[in-house]
């Protein structure tokens, strides 16, 4: 695909959003389309698969604010005639040889401002969009790394604290398994472009000015594939579904993002892959909660146990422990069990916080009522008033 063809694409139209759509609107539009067009939901439907690829390509550009800005600027110049070719007596074609009218600007102008390193020049735009620039070496003209991908996964409370190994299934552009990302048919190899000697850039002089532009023969890649791979058509990338196994470290929290280097979208023609970012969601537990590195739980106890003292057995994520409750313990008191909380990778360890809460029986038998009435009388006789000093009572 030539740069002109690339710039003529309307990524906003592909996603069904306006050119001034917010990043959140773009993300929502992509997710809605991706769900309906996903190859898993439309097996064997080539037309839908091509549409899915187009939507994915559009999102890969518009979801990145920097790429989106470069794309918008390039299309603005393209629409205004800034990329028009002008034929001349030399017969040379390319993006050099501009007239003042070609830029949509009347009067005097500085050619260097358009092609040079100044902010907003074509050199800046092509450098960002195609990872090339005037005077760059062959190494910098290589295809750029693949885009980063995002995925979400859900863990149980126990797995979020202790860590787990989970399989993740994703459908994305990946390195072609047939040509191993080279883009060339197996048994063949890309050759160095003779027109630009592998730099991806051709230079020419016109009067007092020198111009550099992406090589049209190799489309700026620096290499030519004579026999493209039939599966990826020379791109070195194919969309496929894959399952990867991910080790989630202990101590992750709700909404935390984990970066998996090199597990994102494959780069074109063997360029490095992007990264995969996994957002973790944690299911609530029916007993345990979390406060930083500490794990909390509430244990129901009887009034007599608090008054007379007892030892209760409480659960942890790795077994049970016994907690001593002294006589005269107040309702709602919290006990700390050291080292039974969250273990983090940096070596820090949280605690288990056990809060005791009196459970009142909904009904009492006659014997229990009789005993409690005697206790209440003895309590009053001892002078104990549970509301003494409370709310200004005298």
Automatic annotation (TrEMBL):
Residues 88-99 have a biased composition (Gly residues). Keywords: Chaperone, Cytoplasm, DNA replication, Metal-binding, Repeat, Stress response, Zinc, Zinc-finger. Residues 10-75 form the J domain. Its main location: cytoplasm. It is found in: Cytoplasm. Residues 163-241 form the CR-type domain. Pfam families: DnaJ, DnaJ_C, DnaJ_CXXCXGXG. InterPro entries: DnaJ, DnaJ_C, DnaJ_domain, DnaJ_domain_CS, HSP40/DnaJ_pept-bd, HSP_DnaJ_Cys-rich_dom, HSP_DnaJ_Cys-rich_dom_sf, J_dom_sf. Binds 2 Zn(2+) ions per monomer. Gene3D superfamilies: DnaJ domain, Heat shock protein DnaJ, cysteine-rich domain, Urease metallochaperone UreE, N-terminal domain. Residues 82-102 are annotated as: Disordered. PANTHER family: CHAPERONE PROTEIN DNAJ 1, DNAJ HOMOLOG 1, MITOCHONDRIAL-RELATED. Participates actively in the response to hyperosmotic and heat shock by preventing the aggregation of stress-denatured proteins and by disaggregating proteins, also in an autonomous, DnaK-independent fashion. Unfolded proteins bind initially to DnaJ; upon interaction with the DnaJ-bound protein, DnaK hydrolyzes its bound ATP, resulting in the formation of a stable complex. GrpE releases ADP from DnaK; ATP binding to DnaK triggers the release of the substrate protein, thus completing the reaction cycle. This is Chaperone protein DnaJ. It comes from Hoyosella altamirensis. The lineage of its organism: Bacteria, Bacillati, Actinomycetota, Actinomycetes, Mycobacteriales. The gene is dnaJ.
